[in-house]
Structures are given as structure tokens and as C-alpha cells.
Amino acid sequence: MIVAVETAPTPAPTATPLARPALGMIDLLLRDRERMLARIHQGTDLAAIMRTMIATIAVTMAIVGAALGSYRGGVQIAYAAIKLPIVLLGTAALSAPALSAIGAALGRRSRLSADLALVMAALAFGSLLLAACTPLIMLGRSVDLDYHRMILAVVGMFAIAGAAALRMICRGVALEAAPGWRTAVVGLCVVFSLVGGQLAWALRPYLVRPRAPEVMFLREVEGSLFDSVTGAMRSARGIYERDAAPLGRATP
Amino acid sequence: MSVATQAPFPVPRGLAIALAAAGPVAVGGILAARTHDASPMLAAPAIVFGVVAATGPALYIATAAAGNAPPLAAVIRAFGIALGAFGLALAGLILPAAFVSLSSVSVGTTVAATSGVVAIAGYLGLRRLASELKAAGSLDITAGASLAGGVVFVIWAIATASIAGRLWWDLAVEVVS
Hints:
The complex is a heterodimer. Helices cover 67% and strands 0% of the residues of chain A. Chain A is globular. Residues 1-8, 10-16 and 247-252 of chain A have low confidence and may be disordered. Chain A is built from eight helices and no strands. Chain A has helices at residues 21-31, 33-42, 46-69, 75-105, 112-142, 147-174, 181-202, 225-236. Chain B is mostly helical. In chain B, helix 4 (107-135) runs antiparallel to helix 5 (147-176). The termini of chain B are far apart. Residues 1-5 of chain B have low confidence and may be disordered. Classes of the chains: A mainly alpha, B mainly alpha. The interface between A and B is medium-sized, with 32 and 33 residues.
């Protein structure tokens, strides 16, 4: 009788042929990112990877958005669940070509499809991490964590997920050991931050105070995130624009 | 000579150089759409090619005088590749710049976005020019023999970027005001 006994711990079943290939790909992304990066580097099945990663981002960010919207509740749950996937997918679509273009300008043999798949896979990984954080968001809601602490907690979660996604992009591009890959990644980060910041700012709000009497899907188009930040800095220095900012308290 | 024999870009070099012309037109178009003044669409590519044409010979003359002159053909080839790199970089950055600009009502954001992408693409073009000239044997600021060539290049790059930046800034201020 032959009995198959494994005497040593085996690596995680990275290539387990799950019933659905898409789930297998997500499993691979979570368990063995090196192998996922190698597949992208070799250009294996890029279309399927892209489809799966886009679907993953859409679903997980909708879940995260719904969790954020639940802080206020009501229709804001649906609003945030719709807007958050748009922010991430839109930013990726607008920014990923920058990775290829900057790399190509410096002599990297970049391919737009592979770079897009890499960016989407990294963002999908970050989205999955965020989805894993949703119980913490719900916990904050259930213990009535105040609005500003909730904001800080969410920023922390997004920072962790963003750092993990960035690390995956760096490792994916570094596999090529091509000239200018660091500059290409830095360029992608700059473009992604600016575009993502502006798109997220344009589609705000996501997290709304529970006592807010009504919520809106979108605010009116105003200046930009850049204008808002510079305006806030001016206000912090006591310089108010009367037409645009609330006046300071009158002194007796 | 170690000038690269492989294709310098993943696209034909002619297309890359065409992008170097089309990219500034598109950047000028973003500025024009915001300010309702079409002049940036003509002025932007004119600044790029005009400044390169005006300052390029100076780089060849100065490196030759410093004793590090690569063959003229290698210099011309390096400039062609650098312009292509500039065009490719702009092609990848134009969409984000257009989005940031058009999703805002602020003219300042448009100026910042367009100036930013031109500056990034210009930096990448200069960096590619340096690497191509280094491959041609004229630049290596870490090697004593071509230290002078490296210093000449740095001075030339600062001067060229400053001239182009000043012209671009004057153009932006003029159409915005």
C-alpha cells in the first residue's frame, strides 16, 4: 500500500486549480505575489489577470465604500459604495500609462498591457487589504468613534494598503532590472497621487458625520485639491478670503 | 563605439519624435481650453524645438572644446532620441494633466498641471540625452577624462531648461492674464 505522507511543510497551494480561475488568481495574489509578478512579467494571460483584478477592485472597494458610508448610514452607503471603486479604477486608468511612458523614455522595454496589469494587480492587493479592514471601520461605527478619529483611522488603513500596493509595484518593475525603473516608479507615484487626490477630492464626500441632515452624491465643481490645500494653509495663517471662507470670530 | 544598436524605444523613433511635436501641442491645447486663447498650441512646440535648435550646437561646440567631442552623427542621434523620450513621456503624462486641469475651475491648477508635465518630460529628455552621450563616450562625470564634458553638459542643461522654462512661464502668464 502506498501512502503519501508529507514530511515537510509544503508551500502554500499557490496554483491550486480552484473551481473558478478568477478565485484562483485572487488566491495567488494573496498567497504568492512573486509568482503573480512573474506571470505578469512573462506576459502570461494578461487579459484574464486584468479582468480579475478590475473585478476585484470594483467589488472590494464597493464593500469598503459601503462600510465608510455606514458611518452616516442611509443613502450614503450606496453613494460611497459607487464612488470609491470609480476613484481607484479611474486613477489607475489615467495614471498607469505614465509608468510605461516614463520607463520607455529612459530606455526601459515597457509594455503598456503588462504595466497596466501590474498596477491593477497591486491595487487589487491593496483593495483586498482594505476590505480586510472593514471590520475595524464597522467597529469604529459601533463604538461611536468620533468623526475626526474615524477619519484618522481610515487614513491609516489606506496608508497601509497603499504602501503594500506600492511595494508590489516596485518589486514587479524591479524584476526587469531595466534602466530608469526607479524613476518610472517615482513618476507613477507622483502622477497617481496627484490624479488620485484630485479624483477623490472631486467625488467626495465618502465619510459623512452621522448627524449630517442630508447627503449629496457629488459636490459642485470647485477649484482643485491644490487650491483647497493652499486655501487651508492661508486660513491657518489667519488669511481669510471673505468670499470663499467663513469669517473669523469677531473680537470685542 | 557603444552607441546602442537596439531600438531606443518600444515605438518607432519617428513616431516618438512626432510625439515630441504633438505633445507640446496637446499641452498647449489644455492651456488654450482653459484660457480660450489658442496661441499656446503653436507657442509650446515652438519653444521646445526652438530652444533645442538654438542651444544644441552650443553643447557640441563646448564638449568639443573640452576635448570630449563625440562624432557629430552621434550627437545628432542622441538629440533625436532625447526628443523622442520627451515626446513619449509627454504622451503618458498628458492624460493625467488634462484630467487634473479640466476637473478644476481654477486657472492656477491648469498652469501648475501643464507646467509640471512639461518639466517632468523635459527632465526625462535631458536625462536620456545624458545617457546617450555617455554611451557615445563624451560624458561621464565619474571619470576624470570626461569630467569636463560632464560639467559642460550640466551647465548646458541648466541653461537650456532655464531658457525654456522662462519662455513657457511668460507664455502661461500672458495667456492667463
